[in-house]
Amino acid sequence: MKFFKTAWKLLDKEGKLLSVICLLGFCSIISTFINEVLYTIFVMIMLLFIGILFYRMLKEDIIEFIKKVKKKMREEE
């Protein structure tokens, strides 16, 4: 859990926004069973944002980001 808190602190505003949007997208998948048409469109938009998020993560090199998070965790201890 500490890893995720530290990673959240290191994300910029745009990364945080995309993360929240992706989380809402996964929550809306559950709601898809209630009202299929509206939530299907919503889920498709969320999947687009998930793709953008993964592209950004790969662009910044995930391994380097994880190293930064671990380094920041060591500094906080």
What distance lies between the first and last C-alpha atoms, to the nearest angstrom? Answer: 15 Å
Q: Percent range for helical residues?
A: over 70%
What is the chain-wise order of helices and strands?
A: HHHH
Low-confidence stretches: none
Average predicted confidence as pLDDT: 74
Structural class category: mainly alpha
Number of helices: 4
Total strand segments? 0
Q: Please give the radius of gyration in angstroms.
A: 15 Å
Binned strand content: under 5%
Which assembly state applies to the chains in this document? single chain
3D shape: elongated
- Main beta-sheet annotation: none
Transmembrane segments: 15-34, 40-58
Keywords: Membrane, Transmembrane, Transmembrane helix
Short key terms for the protein model shown above:
about 80 residues; mainly alpha; 4 helices; elongated; transmembrane helix; membrane; transmembrane
Strand and helix map with partners:
Blueprint: H1 2-10, H2 13-31, H3 36-59, H4 62-76
Please give a structural write-up:
The chain has one domain (10-76). The chain is built from 4 helices and no strands. It has helices spanning 2-10, 13-31, 36-59, 62-76. The chain is elongated and about 50 Å long. The chain crosses the membrane at residues 15-34, 40-58. Keywords: Membrane, Transmembrane, Transmembrane helix.
